[in-house]
Design goal:
The chain has 376 residues and is an all-alpha fold. The protein has a domain at 64-246. It contains 19 helices and two strands. The radius of gyration is 27 Å and the shape is globular. InterPro entries: RNaseH-like_sf.
Length: 376
Amino acid sequence: MCEELAALQSLKGTTTGEDIFGKVYQTMEELDLDWSKLASITTDGLLMVGMSRVHCLIHQQALCCKVLTWDSVMKVVVSCINFIRAKGLKHRQFQEFLSELESAHGDVLYCTEVRWLSRGRVLRRFYELLLEINAFLHSQNKTVPELIDPEWKWHLAFLTDMTEMLNSFNLQLQGQGKLICDMYSHTKAFEVKLELLLGQVKKHSFIHLPATQNLSAENPAVSFPAEKCVEALEMLKAEFGVRFRELHVYAKEIHLFQNPFVADIDEAQPSYQFELAELQNCDVLKDAFKPNSLIDFYAALPNDTYPNIRKHAMKMSTLFGSTYICEQTFSRMKLLKTPMRSRLTDEHLHQCLTGSAKMEPDIQLLTSQMQAHSSH
């Protein structure tokens, strides 16, 4: 299986669903693609009437993070960072201050909302430099009472840990060539982690929350504000349940694709039952099955014996769980389309962005189709 960008289309006027579909239709016609082979459409929320649709899982995860806004923490963090970095002199003084203290970090980071992983990194750096930041602000005659407030510190530590967990989950969903079954497994695992974490936090156990656990060890006399943290976890759990409900609709199909040898034959669709019976009792294919190379396994299945299972595998392997390849293309396009390249046309961009395909040409086949220069 090879995952590549097929085409790049520009929308120069309105960007309604009809306009987008028009460009998709144009691309399908230009590439002579069969609509009947379209397994599904993956979008960042656009509704495609009459088509099977998958909402980008990375986008869904980012929307779930919105539940953990905690403005009482973020406003203070952003305000302190802006005070330090807004003016060049203060920024240089802060960096020198950290250097004199031989701090593990040399600076604080700006928070950028459009970058989904930004908040976690900003909070982690801020938490680790909390004492230094407070000392520097005092030296600048600026008092921020929250930085010495025990309850606010608890909230900062907890939000830091939770945001890092969400960032880790986000990174698991990223990357090219991700099969829908792998992304589904990561999603289910994170939901289980949330359930586990909820029970542990209620008991004031922070074994999986390093910043919170560290703060608990440093200040054992200060009580943990469990009520707000438990409420945040419950809201996050509920949000995941709602936003990833669409993914669970495909659960049986995903499980069948992920490991047909453990699929329940009775619960499978009738068209798969006899083929599953053959497959699950074939020792040769059991030995050949490797979960980390599903595509190769299904490609090797005899089409005469397992036509429906192969067809199902083709459908599931072409389901895009995210719009990662599109987001990656936007990033690459931003690097290419600079003010110094003002004469780049759509055709130029198309060639630049689709010309970096990872497919390797079959040189031997191409040369065999060319006529050699005959001698005179």
